[in-house]
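pasting for the record
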Amino acid sequence: MLCDLSLSEKVWAVIRSKPKKEIFVKDFFVKDGFEVYLPIIKLKGKETKAKPLFPGYVFTKLSPRFDISYIKKSPNVLCPLMFKEQLAVLEEETINFFKQRQDSSGVIYVEKPNKFKRGQKVKISKGSFSGLEGVVLEYLKEKERVRLLLQYFGREINIEVKESILN
């Protein structure tokens, strides 16, 4: 959604930050009294670092007419996201959609998507079966492995391989 820069009422503006400075920008704006939202995600069940859902962007509730020049001059802000002379904004419902999915610490937990589907044809790129094609029987997400059915010397065999060696 876009809005005119002369608008006085507050809207959720999309602000572009310098790379890896989203948290700094968020904290800076909060300290100055702005309402700010930075959706953070983390993979379920993995010891991975939480990271911004939209790297390089922070959502700030502001009045375009009165606050935009201050925002542009703020440290680690590249620019408000603009299209021609209009400011990119999000609807309140969009912000609430993400807030409803976060836990008490403000993190949205997501599941790692299944890379492989049953029946999918894949090619092995490394190891003793390199170059052979197989059919996915099962994706073992927790183990990051795939169970395959291969035709090998005229026989069907089941093997389990690391997902990283498949194309």
